[in-house]
Input
Amino acid sequence: MKILIIEDSEPLRRSLLVGLNNLGFTVDESGDGSEGLSMALSSDYDLIILDLMLPNVDGMGILQALRSTPSQTRVLILSARSEAHDKINGLMKGADDYLTKPFSFEELHARVLALSRRGQLQSQQNTLRVGDCVLDLSLKTFNYQQQSVNITRNEYKIIECLFSAKDRVLGLEMISEAVVGQFDMLSKNALEAHISAVRKKVRLLGGELPIKNKRGFGYVASEN
Output
């Protein structure tokens, strides 16, 4: 996934650059609105993380210029403006998500992953595979070696979240938001119980669920 960060705060921009690079994303960055707009229009980015208060060309101008083209690049706005009308305006002008400053990097990562999944659906990538396990996003089914595994709605959401971020460790906060939304919280015990239940179901079919617990950090879906 190729990401462009357009943010005039150098400490924040550098922090995001390092964090996203460490997670395996390809990241470009700019602290200037004019330069950022040129980069956005001249390269094919999957996601633009966009501040609104920028020198030369503000974030809303960049967003409107981008949406006047055929580009399908997703845009995540970062802003200190937290009023509902600011968020509504940004979304109505074509942003895909809106995150209010200050924010945790873990929440930003969760939103990046959510936008990534949205892109997968739009491009008709309707299955997620890790090892011998396949999640069908259209049929909402989960299979091990073409054998159906009967899972609950929450179990499905947990697997979708982890399979979408294959080989990346996700913490409780990110998984919880994918399952119950940002206004509720899935407990650690509940998450462990859901994953344990799916693990048992896959073992009954002679397999192993390719999800591992990285103690102190979270869970990762991996073939290794």
